[in-house]
Amino acid sequence: MPKKSPGPKVTKQTPKQARAAGWKDPLRPQQPLVSGRWLLSALGIMVAAAAICAYATLCLLFYQGSWQLIFHPSRAITATPGTPYQQIQFDYTETGKPQLTGWWIPAETDARYINNTILFLHDGRGSLSDTVSQLQTLHSLGINIFAIDYRGFGKSADLHPSEASMNQDADATLSYLTDTRHLSPNSIVVYGTGLGAPIAASTASRHPEVPAVILENISPKASALFAADARSKILPLRLLTGDRFDAAATVKNLQTQKLFLDRSNGPQTQEAFSTAGTPKQLQISPEGQTKYLETMKTFLDHVIHP
How high is the pLDDT of residue 40? Predict the structure, then answer.
């Protein structure tokens, strides 16, 4: 048989020799997977994204819970007026569910202001039970009293209260008095204390037919209340809440007769009085119930029986 000619001689190369000869291993990365700069950029983006998420979460938590820094509601009714009264439920929804609960405390038959009514707006703490003492004092003037619990308070509908919802409740109450009880708007005096004072002022501004408004111990602005929370230093508060409770700004152009009562020696009432337009009166820290009643009678005589 003829002898086979030998094939080309294969020389076994080491990996180093193969790379030197130009051979490329397809499984070997042709360049570094990541550079140091890329790693730093990716790390920076991750840290920034985490910070943005954390800040957004903090904003959301503040948005959901900011009402608790202003309002301190109670659903309990632990006390009621010592004089005859009616518990009234009103402002019904389309499903027939009442939204608001109030107390109608009628004046005696021969009372001094039998034809007049005080719409009382409490200070956003507790419930109507916490106003019993003051309501009885006001009733001793000889005037009808209608006091309400805002939604979120007492037996009114469940809701996280806000300045907007309180204004809506005040308007609904005024409508109840004029449309359902058929009271003349010019026989109603709106009385607000604490957080209720800015609400009373804004109610009077929307209803110029109301002859007078009484603002007692005006609460600090919402921004001042928020300042007590450490988160407020780094959050855009004006974007996260619509609550302002700025009585001074409201009364600046309010032409309704105004009585400012400062029984807590706080600066808010005096600030509001100084910026308020006329007509206005100020009583600083009336001493005792007798002085308070005298101040109230003088004012009511002026605005109701000029």
Answer: 80
Q: Which fold has domain 69-304?
A: Rossmann fold (3.40.50)
Q: The pTM is what?
A: 0.80
On the question of pLDDT at 133 being above 90, the answer is: yes
Please say whether the beta carbons of 192 and 217 come within 8 A.
no
- Judge whether residue 215 has pLDDT over 80: yes
